[in-house]
Amino acid sequence: MPPVPAGARVRRAASSDLDELVALEQRSFSSDRLSRAQYRRHLDSDTAMILVATGHPRPLLGSAVLFFRKRSGVGRLYSLATRPEARGQGVGAALLEAVVNACRHRGCRALRLEVRTDNAAAIGLYERAGFQRIGRYERYYQDGADAWRYEKSLD
Ligand SMILES: CC(C)(COP(=O)(O)OP(=O)(O)OC[C@H]1O[C@@H](n2cnc3c(N)ncnc32)[C@H](O)[C@@H]1OP(=O)(O)O)[C@@H](O)C(=O)NCCC(=O)NCCS
Asked: What sequence ranges are listed for the domain N-acetyltransferase (predicted)?
């Protein structure tokens, strides 16, 4: 796996990242986007965690949105995105590792996610990180695309 770009680091997002988070969302996803209001709410929530990979000290290289449910031992990775110019350099893998660590820290026994069945780059990343395919959901996304559901056991 290629190293994360020199000087990059992963940290929890702050409200000062809001503009860049929304801009990255727009560039990364064509449907099922999180709105600015949703990002603002998730930045200030006990049941959400947004992680960002940043350059030195900016710009934002990538982000991950993670949800927890009260009394559930399963974390949910809702979204993972790397800025197009920074892809293929390990940013996604670094964010994913940080997401797994955050879930462990929170005491989760598993981490789940859904991914479009045609998203080869993301599927490869998840499978290399030890996620296993546990289901298929037809017309899961707003644009009618199907999803695979993946899970990684954290025991
Ligand atoms: C999926 C995504 C987050 C990966 O981020 P990234 O920073 O490029 O990830 P990494 O550099 O850590 O790893 C990418 C891996 O995918 C591989 N890859 C890239 N494009 C690929 C493709 N079309 N098919 C298969 N593998 C591909 C790379 O070679 C690399 O593999 P390696 O680790 O063996 O070298 C990024 O492509 C992205 O933001 N896509 C748009 C948003 C998205 O689809 N998010 C996931 C669904 S929530």
From this structure: 8-155
